[in-house]
Specification:
Blueprint (H helix, E strand, L loop, with lengths): L7 H13 L9 H15 L9 E5 L2 E5 L6 H4 L5
Antiparallel strand pairs: 1-2
Helix pairs in contact: 1-2
């Protein structure tokens, strides 16, 4: 499954925020914290991951899904 990573523009903006931040290992402001996490995700997270598939068969009906699918919209920050 593909992993949703920050865009190149997001990473560039994050690097600018970090470059403008005071030279400290302790970031206390949210923009700096999010910028640091954005750069870390871009540099260390894989582009794809293996996930287990769940399958259920009831008579002729087959249902296949993967863990967390029901919460994908919630995790993406959307509301229904």
């Amino acid at each position: 499954m593909d992993v949703r990573l920050p865009s190149a523009a997001d990473v560039a903006a994050a690097r600018k925020i970090l470059a403008d931040a005071p030279p400290s290992a302790q970031f206390k402001q949210l923009p700096q914290i999010y910028a640091r996490e954005t750069v870390i995700m871009n540099e260390t997270f894989p582009k794809t991951v293996k996930v287990p598939i769940q399958a259920l068969r009831i008579g002729d009906l087959g249902i296949a899904t993967f863990p967390g699918e029901a919460f994908a919209q919630l995790g993406a920050g959307g509301q229904s």
